[in-house]
Amino acid sequence: MTELKNIDAELSLFRGRLWAAAVFVLCCFSILVYRLTVLQIERHDDLASRAESNRIAVVPVVPNRGLIVDRNGVVLANNYSAYTLEITPSQVDDVEATIDALAEIVEIQPRDRRRFKRLREESKRFESIPIRTRLSDEEVARFTAQRFRFPGVDIQARLFRHYPYGELASHALGYIGRINQREAEAMLDWPDEEQANYRGTERIGKLGIEQSYERELHGITGFEEVETSAGGRAVRLLRSHPATPGNTVHLAIDIKLQGLIERLFGSRRGALVAIDPRNGEVLAFVSKPTFDPNLFVDGIDTESWKALNESPDKPLLNRALRGTYPPGSTYKPFMALAALHSGKRAANTVIMDNGVFVFGGNRFRSPAGERGGAMNMRRAIVESSNVYFYSLANEMGVDLIHQEMSALGFGRFTGIDLQGEVAGILPSTEWKRKAYRRPEQKRWYAGETISLGIGQGYNTFTMLQVATALSTVVSDGKRYEPRLVRQIENVVTRERRLPERVPQTPLDFQPEHTALIREAMYGVTQEGTSTRVFAGAAYTSGGKTGTAQAVGLRQNEKYVASRTEEYRRDHSLYEAFAPVENPRVALAIIVENAGFGAAAAAPIARRVLDYLLLGLYPSEEDIVAVQQARAAAPIGQRRPVAEVPLPPRRNAFDAEDAAATPPPAASASGAASVAVPASQPLVPPSAPSQPEPPKPSAPAPSGAGVVAPAASREQP
Fold first, then answer.
1. Following DSSP, what letter does each residue of 518-578 receive, concatenated?
2. 538: number of Cβ within 10 Å
3. Which phi and psi (to 5°) does residue 104 adopt?
4. CB under 8 Å to 43, separation ≥6 — which residues?
5. How far is 708 from 29, CA to CA, in rounded Å?
6. What is the pLDDT, as a whole number, of residue 625?
7. Helices (H), 356-428
8. What is the pLDDT of residue 688?
9. Residues in the chain with pLDDT < 70?
C-alpha cells in the first residue's frame, strides 16, 4: 500500500525549524553585538589600560640613600654599587641543584647558602633573592658566558650601604637591613604616598640615626616605563622619572673625638655622653663595646650573630641610650640642688659626719678614708660626704626627691632623636606600688630612702639622663632635647635646616643656687676627688666622681675588689662641665666594673675636655695609660688635633684605606663640607632589639639586717 506524503505538514515543520534557527542565530548575534558593545564602548578605557599595562611595565627606581656625615663633613655612611647573583625560586625547577651548578662557576660559601635559605623563607616565591653579592668582574664574565644554562638566575647591579669606619660610632649610626615581615606589616598602615615611595625598597634603617631619620635618608623613588614582549622581556624604554637621592644628615659629633674616646675605653665596657648645654647638641655618644654595622647590611651570618648575641660584654646593647646604672655619688650635686630648690636645707646648714649614719637599727657607713667632720653643702659635695646626703634623703623623703629629680629628667625620656631610649627608674611610693605584686613588696620602707641620697637604692639612670640633667643645672635651668643631628641638607637645593625639636620650659632655679652647685663641683677638681686628674688644666671645670655598686652587700660584709668577680665589681663614674664661667660642654661617663671614679672615668673626661676646649690630642703613651687606669693628669707630648689623622677607614670590600683623611662628601652624593674645620677647638653654635632592664627584686624590710644596696665606696 503506497503512503502519501503530507507536503503541507512537512513544509510547515520545515518553516518552524527555519524560524527557530533564525531566532537562535539572531539571539547569538545579538549577544555578540551586545558583548562587543560592552567591550568596545562601555569598558573601552578600562580594557585599554589593561592592555597597555600588559605591554608596559612600570619599574620602580630605588633612590640612593642619603649620606651621614659628622660635624666636619667626614662621611660616616655612604653607598657603593656592586653586582649580585640572584635567583627567582618561582622560575627554577630545582633550586638546590641550580645552586650546586652555580658553585662551579662562581664561589658560593656555606654562609651564602645559609643566608639564601633564610631570605627565601622570609620572601615570596616570585621575588629575586641574592645567592652571592659583590661579584668581581671576572665572576660576572664567567656567569654571563653560561647564562643560557640557568633560567631564573640573573645578575643585578644593586646599591649597598657602607660604613667606612666600621665599629666606630656604630651605636649612634645604627645600620640598615632587609625589611622583615613585622616591618612590612607595619608599612601597611602608612599613608599611600609613603607606601608607594618604598616600592622596590628592600632595606630599611634598623637602629640609630639610620632608623630615626629613615624618611630623610631614603629619598624619593623614581620609575621607568618599559615596553615588554609577550614573554615579559624589556623591549625599549618609553619614559622615565629619575629617583631623588635621600638628604644628607649632618651629625653634631666629631668622628675624631669619637674615635679617641673609644680608644681611651680600650677593652672596657661603658658609655659616655657629652652635650653642649647651650643648644642640646650631642658632641660625643659612646657605647662600648661596639659592633661592625657592615655585618648587617647584606644579612649577618650565623657565626657573627652568635658571637655578638652571646658575648657576655653585650656589644649590641646601646649603653648610652639603654644601659641603666646607679649614679653613685654623681647624684649628690643634684640632691643638693633639690634641697635648695625645695627649701628642705640651706647651703650653710652643718651636718656632723662621723662616718656612720644610723637609721632603724641599720648602720649606713661612709667609705674608708673619708675625712668627715662638720659638713656644709659645699664641703659635702667636695668631700663626697655620704652621711650628709644620707641625712638629706631622710629629711626630704622619697616622694619629694622624686618630684625634684623628675623635673631634671631622671626617670623620664630625654627626647633624644634616637629610638629605643629607656627611662630608667626614679623610685617613688607610687612606682613601688605598681612595680610589685605582693602587698609587703608594695609598701615603701623608710630605710629604703636613705641610700637614694647617694645615688644607690632603686635609682638606675642612663648616662644620657645624667648628662642632660647636668646640662640643665649648669645652664641655670635652660632645657633642650638632646640632638645627635645638627642639620639636614636637601640634596637637590643644598638648603640646610635644623631638625624639629619640642621647646622645653626652663626650670625656675634661683641663680645663686645653681652658682653654688657649679662652684662646689669646681672645688671637686681643685681640692676634692679629681684634683690629681685635672692638675695643670688650662681651663676651669667642675666635676663629680662616683663609685657605684653593681651588686648589694649585706650589712658588715666587706667589699674587696681583687676577690670579687669582674662583672660584680663597682662601676666608675664621672660627670663634668667646662668652662665653669660659661659652660660649653657637659658630660657623663661610666666605666663598668672599673672601681673608683677618679681612677678610670675621670681621666677619660679630662682628655675629652682637653680635646674640645684646647684642641689637644693625648700622646700615645697617655692613651695606653688611660686604658690601663694608670693615668691621672695627661703625660707625654700632646699634639694639636689638626695634626692627628682621622681613624683608619675601610673600603667597601673591607680593605683598609691608605688615605688617612677622606675627601669631603662629593656633591653628587648629596653632602658638603661643614664650615667648622676639624683642627679647631669646638665652639658649637647657640639590633636587633635590645634587652629590657630587669625589674629589681623586692628588698627586705629596713630592720632585716640588709642595706639594699649598701653605701657607695667613694674615696677622697
1. HHHHHHHHHHSTTTTTTTT-SS--EEEEEEE-SS--BTTPPP-GGGS-GGGSPEEEEEEEE
2. 8
3. -80, -15
4. none
5. 95
6. 96
7. 377-383, 386-396, 398-407
8. 35
9. 1-5, 47-57, 123-127, 228-235, 368-370, 551-563, 652-716
Helix 255-265 with 597-609: angle, nearest 10 deg: 160
At residue 350, what are phi and psi to the nearest 5 degrees? Answer: -105, 130
CA–CA dist 606, 589 (Å, integer):
11
Task: Say which amino acid occupies 327.
Answer: P
- CA–CA gap between residue 345 and residue 92 (Å, rounded): 79
Question: Pairing mode, if any, of strands 68-69 and 248-251?
Answer: parallel
**Residue 615 burial (C-beta neighbours within 10 Å; 0-12, 13-18, 19+):** middle
CB 135 within 8 A of CB 123: no
Of 286, 240, 520, nearest in space to 384 by CA: 520
CA neighbor of 616 nearest in space, from 608, 624, 626: 608
Cell 659645699 found at: 378
- Contact yes or no for 553/234 (Cβ under 8 A): no
Dig out the grid coordinates for 73 from the structure: 663633613
Q: Which residue's C-alpha cell is 644579612?
A: 299
SS (H, E, C) 472-519: HHHCCCCCCCCECEEEEECCCCCCEECCCCCCCCCCCCCHHHHHHHHH
Give the E-state strand segments of 31-88 in sequence order.
Answer: 56-61, 68-69, 75-87
Give the list of residues 6+ apart from residue 433 with CB closer than 8 angstroms, or none. 442
Of 328, 399, 435, 445, the closest CA to residue 695 belongs to 435
- Chain centroid to Cα 69, Å, comes to 16
329 in active site: yes
CA 431 – CA 372 distance, rounded (Å)? 34
Q: What is the pLDDT of residues 148-171, one digit of tens each?
A: 888 889 888 888 899 999 999 999
Burial string for 279-311 (b: 16+ CB within 10 Å, else e) reads bbbbbbbbbbbbbbbbbbbbbbbeeebeebeee
C-alpha cell at 606: 679630662
Which residue type sits at 656? E
Angle between helices 386-396 and 398-407 (to 10 degrees): 100
State residue 232's pLDDT score. 54
Going by C-alpha positions, the residue among 493, 501, 431, 491 that lies closest to residue 459 is 431
Cβ neighbours of 328 (radius 10 Å): 29
578 neighbors 542 (Cβ within 8 angstroms): yes
Task: Please count the other Cβ atoms lying within 10 Å of the Cβ belonging to residue 475.
Answer: 23
Please compute, for residue 426, the number of CA atoms within 13 A of its CA located in the half-sphere on the CB side: 23
Cα separation, 445 vs 458, whole angstroms: 12
Residues paired with residue 158 on neighbouring β-strands, in sequence order: 82
Query: CB burial class (10 A; 0-12, 13-18, 19+) of residue 262?
Result: buried
Out of 170, 329, 385, 451, which one is annotated catalytic? Answer: 329
